[in-house]
Design goal:
This protein is of the alpha+beta class. Helix content is about 20%, strand content about 20%. The longest helix is centred in the N-terminal third of the chain and has 13 residues, at about 30-45.
Length: about 190
């Protein structure tokens, strides 16, 4: 059984990998999909299907939701982005009414809330705080298949407290990666 800790650890092993479109080789180059593919290979072995060539603007010309379709074929779709937990894959729509064409892996971050490991052009594979800008663009969440859903969240990702302890427990309002509409926004 795959643990959330194993997923986050595998993703963190890619930190510092340079950005390279269509690549998926830890330490040499990866784009956002290449990161997800590399973590898949570390957890499960061979990729579930060959990766066809894709352009940096994939789906934009045709309006095709290629990334969401592929994620739905191989990952377990969650009911909504608010259900995502560390180790889950988030998919983003970078423009209103644009196609979803970016993905990353949710983490607990550095104590400032949730984080995201993703590959970004010009930066490579980085771990960032999942701020409001990113949360507003998240359109879907998926789990890797066979993820252990019975173990406590905090123990899986290495936090030093027990479930229910502290204001930033995942079930407390202050730790929700996706606040309710209007929450945390200035008007």
């Amino acid at each position: 059984m795959v643990t959330r800790n194993a997923i986050v650890t595998a993703a963190r092993n890619w930190l510092g990998t340079p950005y390279h479109h269509q690549a998926s080789l830890r330490g040499a180059g990866a784009d956002c999909l290449g990161l997800i593919r590399g973590v898949w290979r570390e957890l499960y072995g061979e990729e579930p299907e060959p990766m066809p060539p894709y352009t940096p603007d994939w789906g934009s010309a045709t309006g095709s939701e290629t990334l969401l379709a592929a994620a739905s074929r191989h990952l377990v779709k969650l009911d909504g982005v608010g259900e995502a937990r560390p180790g889950d894959v988030l998919v983003f729509r970078m423009r209103d009414r644009g196609v979803a064409k970016h993905a990353g892996i949710l983490t607990l971050g550095d104590g400032s809330g949730c984080g995201l490991i993703h590959a970004q052009e010009g930066l490579g594979v980085v771990e960032i705080t999942l701020g409001l800008w990113w949360r507003r663009r998240a359109v879907a969440a998926f789990s890797f298949p066979g993820v252990d859903t019975t173990s406590p969240l905090w123990g899986e990702v290495g936090a030093q407290r027990t479930p229910g302890e502290g204001a930033d427990h995942p079930r407390s309002p202050s730790h929700q990666p996706f606040p309710q509409r209007g929450e945390g926004e200035s008007h």
